[in-house]
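subagent[fold] <- orchestrator: predict structure for attached chain, return tokens only, no commentary.
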Amino acid sequence: MHIDRRAFLATLGSAAVVEAMSSEARADALEHYMIAQLDKPSAASAQPPVVRRGAGALFGGPSPSGQRPELTVLATMPERPTLTDFIRFRGTPGIGNHILQSANDALRKGESEETVLACLLHDFVLNLMKTDHGWWGAQLMEPYVSEKVSWAIRHHQALRFYPDASVGYEYPELYVRIFGKDYVPAPYIKASYEYARKHKWYMEARMITVHDLYAFEPGMKVAIDPFVDIIGRHFKQPKEGLGFDGLIAAVSAAAIAQAPANPPVRIRGTVERIDRTNLTVKANNGQTMDVKLADNFVVIGIAKASLADVASGKFIGTTTVGERDGALVALEVHIFPENMRGTGEGHYDWDLRPNSKMTNANVANVTSMGKDRVLTVQYKGGEKKVLVPERAAIVSFTPVDRSELKPGAKVFLNTQRQPDGSLTAARVNVGLHGQVPPM
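subagent[fold] -> orchestrator:
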């Protein structure tokens, strides 16, 4: 597709507006602009509404590229709608055409059915939500597809900015022409790429970006019919009808909690200096990290505990890697005090090790398996079984005096990166009596 650079930039506003946009926002704007060119309405409908209440392309209003899709009256949905119905009746023509072209390219080139499905679904969420579409899209589809497919959708957003010669994916020349050679993805995009690059499903997400390149052909129409059987085999259609199964609200809430507009920067390391609210940490990766602490920052001590302390009714966090006999396998368990109940509640990706997960939840049940324990933990919207081996690290959290924060202390921090690049934190977790924070 040929893109007129001046025409595109003109849709964004003044030079000052363009300069103020983040690299991710500009890239999203470009994709919206390209999609909008695929299927412009041939004629205006009779007095269409100007805007609907909502955030995605389906609701009207300007897209990140400045395009205003024409709004027409929505078609009536079947009593028990399917994914196919949503693509046909609840998607804008441009986005529908784009994802069908992408899936068609994957199918034509012999990709697996799961990869074809991922290509078909990867940008559907743009109808509903414009920002960080990889994360939002994965959350939307997660209850209905395999973990591999949702993982690929989540990480394709970051991978599109990074070349991979092994599959012939080059950094899009269009990005260079539109944004210049100094285009730099946001830090959380880079972090997502570096994590995904080492993951066993890396290539699943990478192939979405490959087939995405061939999905902006104006005038090319692709029917959904070739994908109906693939959807039937790999998409878990609820018997009540998609949208009436009680999962969408839960998914939306989880997406709001996890969409990484400004994801935390986690630091594990040793205190080098502390001067009032200025903390310097030598991270385990060798970097020296300066953190500005809040005036009212708190220090949480991490002390050694035992498996016997992990009892029903406790609110815990646990880092897990892999599964055994249907249960997540714990590397560590940290027990929260009652006044910290609900901290970080949920089940989500973690960065302690490749493929690790964090689950913060209430312990509903504990059973013994030899010297190990099997926990049933419950959080809002879900439940997990966790196998805690005898060798797992068990610690407890307790508030301590700031004096425990001193040179040589082992710490773990969740920090936030500010617009000026600095890191801030309101809480520091510090190991007590030689205990290294295990999370």
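orchestrator: received. Logging for downstream: The CA atoms of residues 376 and 385 lie 5 Å apart. Confidence is low (pLDDT under 50) at residues 41-49, 249-261.
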